[in-house]
């Protein structure tokens, strides 16, 4: 009996960040929307933690648009964000 294993390689990445106000304090509860502009599709949403941190893991490599919204703040959008790649 002979067995063989096929190894596959999938490249994904994560986008992580911190939402801060003008004084540099973290903004808890902000909504993060990650969009793939090539497909015009929302691929992930997240909410910042108590210190303003967020993470969007396991995104396929590519370019993304990151929108941040929080009560009492103007909406902010950053274009052409690339995830930090990991190979698994």
Q: Summed up, what is this model?
A:
The chain is mostly beta strands.
What is the correct CATH architecture? Answer: Sandwich
What strand order characterises the main sheet?
Answer: 3-2-5-6
Percentage beta strand: over 45%
How many angstroms does the end-to-end distance come to? 29 Å
Mean pLDDT: 87
Indicate the structural class. mainly beta
Number of domains as seen in the coordinates: 1
**Helix tally?**
0
CATH third-level topology: Immunoglobulin-like
Note the main sheet: 4 strands, antiparallel
**Regarding CATH, which class?**
Mainly Beta
Helix fraction, binned, reads under 10%
List the uncertain runs. 1-8
| Strand count | 7
Fourth-tier CATH superfamily name: Immunoglobulins
Estimate the global geometry from the Cα principal axes: globular
Order of helices and strands: EEEEEEE
Notes on the structure:
It contains no helices and seven strands. It is mostly beta strands and 88 residues long. The protein has a single domain, classed as Immunoglobulins (Immunoglobulin-like). Strands 3-2-5-6 form a four-stranded antiparallel sheet, with no helix packed on it. A three-stranded antiparallel sheet has the order 4-1-7, with no helix packed on it. It is globular, with a radius of gyration of 17 Å.
């Amino acid at each position: 009996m002979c067995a063989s294993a096929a190894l596959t390689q999938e490249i994904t990445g994560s986008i992580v960040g911190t939402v801060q106000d003008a004084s540099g304090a973290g903004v808890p509860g902000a909504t993060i929307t990650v969009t793939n502009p090539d497909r015009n599709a929302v691929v992930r949403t997240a909410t910042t933690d108590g210190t303003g941190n967020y993470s969007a893991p396991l995104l396929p490599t590519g370019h993304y648009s990151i929108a941040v919204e929080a009560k009492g703040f103007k909406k902010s959008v950053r274009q052409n964000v690339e995830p930090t790649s990991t190979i698994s």
